[in-house]
Amino acid sequence: MSEERYLTFALCKGRLAKQTLELFEKVGITCEEINDPKTRKLIFVNDELKFRFFLAKGPDVPTYVEYGAADIGIVGKDVIMEEHRKIYEALDLGFGKCRMCVCGPASAGELLKGQERIRVATKYPDIAKEYFYDQKNQTVEIIKLNGSIELAPIVGLSEVIVDIVETGSTLRENGLVVLEEVCPLSARVVVNPVSMRMENERITKLLQELSACVNG
Ligand code: PRP
User: Fold this and answer.
1) β-pairing, 51-56 with 43-46?
2) CA 129 vs CA 126, 170, 177: distances in Å
3) Whose CA is nearest to atom 2 of ligand 1?
4) 49: β partners
């Protein structure tokens, strides 16, 4: 039998990384070095399992997986929906749960009922466009921002925002409310379609182990 090749994992930097590594530990996938906050290394290896890992910015994870530079990625459903990459969404990990919502001051609720050409600020222009144009049939002006989206309606850049709501405290502390829910979100495992065929046995086993762990 030919020697197994390394399977490469692209993990999302930030909020999801910690929970992803905790889940991996539970199914026996360990990687000491990746937990070292001082390290500047980019690639981490588990030679025993023939796995290697790297951390990437969320929106880059589906890109690495589509091109096969990573076989497997762990990333939020929000990023999957926004990026439209040719990847196979294999498993809902059930953590990182939050909601994509239309938010704004309570008074902006009226503007969502009719055909007002309002401004919508968001980090997710495609999700916002699909929601307003395809689901609500409302023509709006979408303004792309890169963070602190809640600022937009406060300083008068837009009437509403489309953004992630987790605990709701950012909204509360800034006098904003959820006006409409676009969809629920959570962390997902995505797989390169060619890897899924070529490494089917190993990847299926891994998905089963992860699924058993998250679904009890
Ligand atoms: C996200 C999101 C909201 C906040 C929601 O921002 O864009 O601002 O978290 O969380 P909450 O409902 O628990 O308050 P993030 O912290 O990722 O940073 P960003 O504003 O730079 O996008």
Assistant:
1) antiparallel
2) 5, 23, 20
3) 164
4) none
Closest ligand 1 atom to 169 CA? 14
Alpha carbon separation from 198 to 7, 29, 30, 201, 208 (Å, rounded): 11, 21, 24, 8, 17
Strands of the sheet containing 43-46, edge to edge, are: 43-46, 51-56, 7-12, 72-76, 187-191, 88-92
User: pLDDT tens-digit profile of 93-147?
Assistant: 999 999 999 999 999 999 999 888 999 999 999 999 999 999 999 999 999 999 9
Q: Is 181 exposed, middle or buried (0-12, 13-18, 19+ CB in 10 A)?
A: exposed
CA of 202 from ligand 1 middle (Å) equals 35
